[in-house]
Amino acid sequence: MSTSSGTPESWISSFCALPGHEYFAEVSEEFIEDDFNLTGLQTQVAMYKEALEMILDVEPEDDDEEEEDEEDDDENESGLEEPDRAGVRHGAERRHHSRMASDLSVIESSAEMLYGLIHQRFICSRVGIQQMSEKYEFGHFGCCPRTHCEQARTLPVGLSDIPGEDTVKLFCPSCLDVYVPPNSRFQTVDGAFFGRTFGALFLLTFPEYDLTKRGADVLSSTNSKVPDDETILNGMYAKNIAPGLGGAHIYEPKIYGFKVSERARSGPRMQWLRDRPETITELDEARLYHEQNPDSEEEDEESMAVNGRALVRRRPPGNARLRQRQNHSGSPMALSANGAESEL
Amino acid sequence: MDDYVSESDSDYTSYWRDWFISSRGNEYFCEIDEDYLTDRFNLTGLNTEVQYYQYALDLVTDVFDLDCDDDMRETIESSARHLYGLVHARYIVTTRGLTKMLDKYKKAEFGKCPRVNCHSHPLLPMGLSDIPNLKPVKLYCARCEDLYNPKSSRHASIDGAYFGTSFHNIIFQVYPALIPSKSIERYIPRVYGFKVHAAAALVRWQDLKRDDMRRRLRKLEIESGFREEQMEEEEEEEDDDVEFEGVDGNNSNMRLIEGGPM
């Protein structure tokens, strides 16, 4: 959609430009136009049809002169930039004479809800997660407030997939914990718009990010990836399993230089939460099980004898098919191939 | 040295300190008593640490009357702030200092823990070093026993030595009733309700560590500070863990997730 009147903004890009909406990705129109991706949302959102039309900037079907209206449309949309939305309502009123102002504010909030729910599905699709990875690389989601994580970049997550339950949180892959965003403007953003799955799925989809890198470091040097020869453990690069935990990353309480004993009533009780085995292979439960129960499976035992650490594989983790397809953008139908959206 | 004016100053004795603790960015500091500042024993060793020590002390105690140019005044001013910070680190571990900081803690004036599972528990300021100009101030959460960076940059630039490495631990020794109950609540990364294997394996290992500690403490009959019912819940959940094997081929992400949908 481009007209002579400068660069008109779509509803989606103006929504993402609002203060507090910095974490949102711009959902592609193809994704929204595929009804399959919207399965079940009709029942969750009031005035669904109108809300969907608002998101896609399309005129209601009963409008006759579509082409002329489209021009109009674009002018009106630029009003969306104003945060107080007065311009939107005004412009939209001119557009739909029959519609009441109160109706429009209902549709507006329905549209936001619908966009959020679509967004939850979109960022788990291939195109969506790719877009979020670019935002992650630029550090758009901020960094971990924990001192020992040394400003590791975070990911926005929800603690529930149902809207209205909790606000958006930040998941730190370096300490595997969730934090309240530092700025209060994010406390009005629903966590369900990001969903419970995105954070963990991101790490499985992009296993090669160096999780300890800060946003600033990445901008100066182009290489924020883990080298290929890293050991793989439990399906992830061993280096990337909670790199901000364990050893020197655990706070040791001291009084005048003396450690506070565990036996003191005020002694440390929570160090396990920030702990990580010194030799990370301790987490290879399958290998340990086989070592302790040598006769359980003969086949595996044979392969163990061959290279000692059979289960510390060097296969790159993640979905190989997914990685191959990352470079070209396919049809919206292909998005469902990783089974992400359909299972909700 | 001790030439402070003793008469007619009761109304504005704490003029400089009032200004200091009420100015923007100094919200973490409490007011040091006049008595504490004028007892030279409390200031032992600080004269070598602070430039223009005597003028700085005069300024802090509001008896400064040197006629000097603006540059000099600015230098003395910054020395006074440094001196105040260093005395502050000593003062807040005294009985009176602890009560003042306790009041601020109860009002959550040092901020609240950003960790979701700490449910906005109030924080305490602390330093990672007692030597000045090394590490900026950090915030300690007594619930998760971890350190966090202050949200605002004007707090992030305060010297950690003005609070010291011991204060936040001493306060809980002096007021054991303040020790918050510990919680095993934690975030577990999931994909469509399934736990991610790498994270879940780490969580299981950490849980073993925790249970070891609780067993050690139980043997010594020391209270661990955890609520009992939480432990049982966790044990039940552990039983549900079923490894989830791949559904579509070797390379599927599904191999990496486990457990049942919650």
Cross-sheet strand order for the largest sheet of chain A: 1-2-3
**CATH C-level label of the largest domain in chain B:** Mainly Beta
- CATH architecture grouping of the largest domain in chain B: Single Sheet
Please count the helical segments of chain B: 9
Mean pLDDT of chain B: 85
Q: How much strand of chain B?
A: 5-15%
Largest sheet of chain B: 3 strands, antiparallel
Structural class of chain B: mainly alpha
Describe this structure in words.
The complex is a heterodimer of chains A (344) and B (262). By secondary structure, chain A is mainly α. In chain A, 34% of the residues lie in helices and 5% in strands. In chain A, the strands form 3 sheets. A 3-stranded antiparallel sheet of chain A has the order 1-2-3, with no helix packed on it. A two-stranded antiparallel sheet of chain A has the order 4-5. In chain A, strands 6-7 form a two-stranded antiparallel ribbon. In chain A, strand 2 and strand 3 (177-179) form a beta hairpin. By secondary structure, chain B is mainly alpha-helical. Chain B has 3 domains: 15-91, protein kinase ck2 holoenzyme, chain C, domain 1 (Orthogonal Bundle), CATH 1.10.1820.10; 99-178, N-terminal domain of TfIIb (Single Sheet), CATH 2.20.25; 190-258, no CATH class. Helix content of chain B is 39%, strand content 7%. A 3-stranded antiparallel sheet of chain B has the order 1-2-3, with no helix packed on it. In chain B, a hairpin with a 2-residue loop joins strand 4 (190-191) and strand 5 (194-196). In chain B, helix 3 (53-60) packs across helix 4 (70-91). Mean pLDDT of chain B is 85; it is low at 1-12 and 232-255. The chains are: A mainly alpha (344), B mainly alpha (262). The interface between A and B is large, with 63 and 59 residues.
Task: Tell me the layout of helices and strands.
The complex is a heterodimer of chains A (344) and B (262).
Chain A: H1 11-17, H2 29-33, H3 48-56, H4 66-78, H5 86-95, H6 101-122, H7 126-137, E1 155-157, E2 169-172, E3 177-179, H8 198-205, H9 215-220, E4 232-233, E5 236-237, E6 254-255, E7 258-259, H10 285-292, H11 298-307, H12 320-325
Antiparallel strand pairs in A: 1-2, 2-3, 4-5, 6-7
Chain B: H1 15-22, H2 34-38, H3 53-60, H4 70-91, H5 95-106, E1 123-126, E2 138-141, E3 146-148, H6 153-156, H7 167-174, E4 190-191, E5 194-196, H8 197-219, H9 228-239, E6 257-258
Antiparallel strand pairs in B: 1-2, 2-3, 4-5, 5-6
